[in-house]
Design brief:
The chain is an alpha/beta fold. The protein contains 6 helices and 13 strands. It is globular, with a radius of gyration of 20 Å.
Amino acid sequence: MKFIHLTDTHFVPAGKRLYGRDPSAALRAAVADINAHHADAELVVVTGDLTHWGEPRAFAHLAGVLAELAPPLRLLIGNHDARDVFRRTFPDQPADASGFIQSVQDTSAGRFVFLDTVEAGSDAGHYTAERCAWLADSLAATDRDLFLFMHHPPFPIGLPALDKIGLQRAEGFRAALEPHRHRVRHLFFGHVHRPVAGSWLGIPVSSVRSMNHQTWFDLQAGELVASFEPPAYGVVIVDADSVIVHSHDFLDDSPKFAYRENPWDDWSRRPPPA
């Protein structure tokens, strides 16, 4: 199975800019690149912060760009989004019985579980007792391999300014997950605007860069510092033995060349015998 992980599009209304940039430019390029090279992907998952301020015009702008995407689409919300506006704009995206934007989808690789970690008015993540009960039931309802998707990471990543706004009071989330963690093959998250990979509770985890702006890597900074490192999306390849995540800098314009036939006459060619 192949699918795409994309995150933090931070859309604003058409014609507006965010930190001096048009967030739609990078996403349009990503959509074109995915359509050209990964139209066979089983799914594209966007892990939240779809918009920057959650207004209807921003969501409408995003919907127009995503309408061009060839593979099927699944959207999560993040702390910058408004749940009610999202539901009006994307009525085809499923929600649970309480209206949270969370659901499951059985794919060729296993069960994908999509979570809603948003608490209105908070940049930090919250996963309430009601949502924890939904998660426990969803995990127990199948014996298939599990893949989790969420906006806020449920563990610290070592960047203090980001850890302050990660998932708060995560004990309930952990308790719901623990009995099934041996079946969780990967946990994908957004929110941090960084390429991050590792493991938590023995579960492999990863995120990718956002579409418009990034968080600069600084293990001491007490507040968030942004950068314009290039955007990226993840190409995820799953088989019975492995889950491989390729972070693709799709806007990279550096020269491309064959190792054996490169245009430079330099030490990349084998030197003559001594």
